[in-house]
Write a structure and sequence with these properties.
InterPro entries: GH (IPR017853). This is Family 1 glycosylhydrolase. The chain is of the alpha/beta class. The chain has a single domain (12-405), classed as Glycosidases (TIM Barrel), CATH 3.20.20.80. The chain contains 14 helices and 17 strands. The chain has helices spanning 31-34, 41-50, 62-65, 77-86, 110-125, 141-149, 161-185, 210-218, 223-229, 240-243, 277-288, 304-320, 365-377, 395-405, and strands spanning 12-15, 22-23, 27-28, 55-59, 66-67, 70-71, 89-93, 134-136, 190-196, 199-201, 245-249, 255-257, 265-266, 292-297, 325-330, 350-355, 358-363. It has an 8-stranded parallel β-barrel. It has a 3-stranded mixed sheet with strand order 10-12-13. A two-stranded antiparallel sheet has the order 2-3. The protein starts with 11 loop residues before the first strand and ends in a 9-residue tail after the last helix.
């Protein structure tokens, strides 16, 4: 990896759950409302400032902003003000699984409508915050295609492999159109294209499924990125510059045993078929040779501290092997409800405690302490000063730490 200034002002990033999907049997969901993030915006961003986190993934809720082509962005003003006060830069998610009720992702005009909305987003947020400016046009296109195209969890509620493929292509077309529209407003805007990085293996007693599992890991996982990069379906207009920054989401349940229908089954953490995260990061980097970011990662319950340690060890092992890694996003900053059960997941930097009709933020101290230890080890700040952009991450510090620690890939994440 070339020793140079990082794309981001801090190596550790965070973000806030902002899904707005039309959810099975429940209708439109708003995870920002469910976590009271808007009401607690100043508190939530003050937390990131205290923790030395200078970048946060944040959502602009397309279904609530778009009024048939007229846009009302006033709902995100408290977020913009909190970012301004606490010196945190956003990576704006423009479509986090949700689109307006009157939009049809399979319709020919969908990409053009999304591009108009993306341009309007850029025109609204760019003058209100300092640059650089970051956008994720459509979050997790591959996973979005599964939950909306094959599993029927969210709109458009399709339930076939063919519809999953069609939805993925439609989302890629819209994403590419949105990037071009945003860069008409700011040619220097950076894009972070985020999808899960997974390892899928066949059941031990089903060697006949080995090829299907292999395709899932080495082909299907990458197809959306391939289309955005222009490596597949070049007629969509993708290119490496449109792909820009590759954001890979890394969770324990991304190590899976193949199932012929429905979601795959998560492997136990000590399963010998688990692939070290380092190897997955190297595989993605060698495919695109673009700057990379761990776009989401978090442990659960009491395992959050150890998960952070494992992920950073694996990330540094990948850096030592030449991966241009610009950061690790601890997601979410505050807890989130399980999409299916509604119970709190306990995966955030803060837990949420119901208290007199509100949701009190309780920082998870062992998790925060582990973060601070890594910040010091990587020669990074543990608290944002008045101008975080004046001292960007020097990637040479990250490379040096990786070489000094001599971390090795580890497949046992127990």
């Amino acid at each position: 990896m070339t020793a140079a200034a990082s794309i981001f002002p801090t190596f550790f990033l965070s973000g806030f759950e902002c899904s707005t999907f039309d959810w099975k049997d429940e209708g439109r969901r708003d995870l920002v409302a469910e976590t009271r993030h808007l009401e607690h915006a100043q508190e939530d961003y003050a937390l990131l400032q205290r923790l030395g986190i200078g970048v946060a993934r944040e959502g602009i809720p397309w279904p609530f902003v778009d009024r048939g082509g007229a846009y009302d962005f006033s709902g995100i003003d408290p977020l913009i003000e909190a970012m301004r006060v606490h010196k945190v830069l956003p990576i704006w998610d423009l479509c986090h699984y949700g689109y307006p009720d009157d939009a049809d992702p399979f319709a020919p005009e969908f990409a053009e409508r999304f591009a108009r909305y993306a341009r309007a987003c850029a025109e609204y947020v760019i003058p209100r915050l300092p640059g650089p400016h970051f956008f994720t046009p459509i979050n997790e296109i591959t996973f979005f295609a599964f939950i909306g195209g094959e599993w029927g969890w969210a709109a458009p509620f399709q339930k076939s492999r063919e519809q999953r493929f069609a939805l993925r292509e439609a989302l890629c077309r819209a994403d590419i159109a949105a990037v071009k529209a945003i860069r008409e407003v700011d040619p220097g805007a950076r894009m972070v294209h985020i999808d899960p990085l997974v390892n899928v293996v066949a059941p031990k007693d089903r060697p006949d499924l080995e090829e299907a599992a292999r395709r899932e890991t080495f082909e299907d996982t990458f197809l959306a990125w391939d289309m955005i990069a222009g490596l597949a379906r070049p007629e969509f207009g993708g290119s490496p510059e449109i792909l820009d920054i590759v954001g890979v989401n890394c969770y324990s349940f991304g190590q899976m045993e193949y199932r012929e229908s429905g979601p795959h089954a998560a492997l136990p953490p000590d399963d010998p078929r688990v692939c070290p995260l380092c190897d997955l990061l190297v595989m993605a980097y060698e495919r695109y040779r673009r700057p990379m970011l761990v776009g989401e990662t978090s442990g659960l319950e009491e395992g959050r501290e150890n998960w952070l340690n494992d992920v950073v060890h694996e990330a540094l092992a990948a850096v030592a092997r030449g991966v241009e890694l610009h950061g690790v996003c601890l997601f979410p900053a505050v807890d989130m409800p399980d999409w299916h059960k509604g119970i709190w997941v306990h995966n955030g930097i803060c837990d949420l405690i119901e208290d007199k009709g509100d949701l009190r933020r309780i920082p998870v101290e062992p998790y925060c302490d582990a973060l601070r230890r890594w910040q010091r080890r990587l020669n990074r700040v543990t608290h944002l000063d008045e101008d975080p952009l004046s001292d960007p991450v020097n990637l040479a510090d990250i490379v040096q730490a990786a070489r000094e620690m001599e971390t090795q890939p580890d497949r046992d994440w127990h």
